[in-house]
Structure formats: structure tokens, C-alpha cells
Amino acid sequence: MSEERRARRAATREARSGAGPTVSGVEPGVNPGATAKFGLFGEVLTIGLMMTVVALGVVTLPIALAAGIRHLRRFVAAEDSRAGLFWEDVRAGILSSLVVGVPAAVIAAVLTIDVLVAGSGALPGGQAIAVVGWAGLLVLSVALLAAAGAWSPALGWIGAVRAVPSVVRADAAGAAYLAAAAVFTGVVTWALAPLFIAGIGCAALAVVAVPARRRRGVHHAG
User: Fold this and answer.
1) Confidence (pLDDT) at 118
2) Could you count the other beta carbons within 10 Å of the beta carbon of residue 192?
3) pTM of the entire structure?
4) How many CB atoms lie within 10 A of CB 125?
5) For residues 111, 115, 118 and 121, what is the CA-based torsion angle, rounded to 10 degrees?
6) How many whole angstroms separate alpha carbon 80 and alpha carbon 203?
7) What keywords appear on the UniProt entry (predicted)?
């Protein structure tokens, strides 16, 4: 194989991955930042740690998720993904996020207490109450992830929350993936608390990946 053909093939691979320059006749790939799998994994863990620090206040979990999701979107798109931009998003939305964070924390606490009391056998029909409690926690988690994914400094938290029903209706399967990500985060955290770092990072990546999955499906159908 000639040197020119080898160079052409290498350039074509890079173009298709989205990481290299455009080559004539080759459609460039999307999300070039996601092509380096080990690099993406490292970024998920790094942003998971940063999100965990912000989420220590509990009521600050929404802005931790939103800032982490925006950071990973920039990273997979090979845009500017400096850590400083994450902290800028946190500063821009942390106070207004309390309108979501405080009610979400209260609802989660009430549902958790219901599940614990139901599991103790102190209430008649405890199993049904526990199922309702777990379902409520799952719905709350999906809504929180969807709202965090919709948030931007320009839209604000009220607009992000209002967008949740339309997001779920537009992609019910995507909502199921978000539910799976929430369950995964809960399970790994229950198994070993420090794994929350990886879990929340993966949950943020799921919010980024679900719409990309939908776009690819539309592209292939066309």
C-alpha cells in the first residue's frame, strides 16, 4: 500500500470519528470528544467529583447536575471544556436552583421516610406503600435529570422545569434510560458511598447521550 493511500485511509478514519479535519467525500462524525473512550471515562470521573462537591449541600444537587451536564456536552462536542466554565455555571445558577432543590429535597425525604416506615411492617399495606414510595423517588429522579438537562443560564430553572413534560413526551424511551441511570447511581452508592462520584458522572453523561441517540436514529432512518 502506498504512503498516499495509507495517509488517505488514516485521514478518512479521523474525519469519520469527528476528531480530524474534513475529507472530501467523507461525512464527519458527531461528538468528536466522545471518540477517545478512556479520555471520556476520565472526564466523567473528574466532573463526577466536581458535581459531588457542589451536591454536598443536598439542595444544590440540581445545579450540580446542570453544570456537569453542560460541561460534558462541551467536552463531547470538542468545545471549550475548562473546569472554570463548570464553576461559572454553578455561580450563575446556584441561588435560583434552590426553587427546585429545596422542594425536591423535601419530597425525596418524605418518600424515603414512607419507604422506610413501610418496610418496617408498622403500617398495614406496607408493601403497596413502599412500591408507591419507590415509584415516586424514581419519577422525581427522572424529572430532576430532565430539568437539569434543559437548564441554561438564559432559560433559568422555571423554564427548565416547565420543559420536563415535553421532554418526556418527545422521548419516552429516553426517559426510561434516565430512570435506569438514576437507579444505577442509587445502587452503586448504596453498595459503596464513594461510588456516588462515578454514578452521578454517568447520570450526567446519560442526559447528554440520550438526545444524541435519538438524532442518530433519525439520521439512519433518513
Assistant:
1) 77
2) 9
3) 0.80
4) 9
5) -150
6) 21
7) Membrane, Transmembrane, Transmembrane helix
Task: Measure the CA–CA gap between 71 and 85, rounded to whole angstroms.
Answer: 7
Written as nine digits, the cell of 70 is 453542560
Q: One-letter amino acid identity for 151?
A: W
Which of 50, 46, 45 is CA-nearest to residue 67? 50
What are the cell numbers at 46? 473528574
- Cβ atoms of 115 and 133 within 8 Å: the answer is yes
d(CA 133, CA 131): 5
Identity at 134, one-letter amino acid code: W
DSSP character at residue 153: T
DSSP code at position 96 = T
The pLDDT of residue 221: 43
Nearest to 214 by CA among 186, 178, 185: 178
Tens of pLDDT, residues 46-102: 999 999 999 999 999 999 999 999 999 999 887 777 899 999 999 999 999 999 999
* Cα distance between residue 91 and residue 108, in whole Å: 25
Q: Is the pLDDT of residue 29 over 60?
A: no
Would you list the domain boundaries of the chain? 58-221
Q: Which amino acid is at 150?
A: A
Q: What is the pLDDT of residue 156?
A: 94
Confirm if 205 and 180 have CB atoms less than 8 A apart. Answer: no
Q: How far is CA 209 from CA 31, 175, 213, in A?
A: 10, 12, 6
Residue 75's identity, in one-letter code, is: F
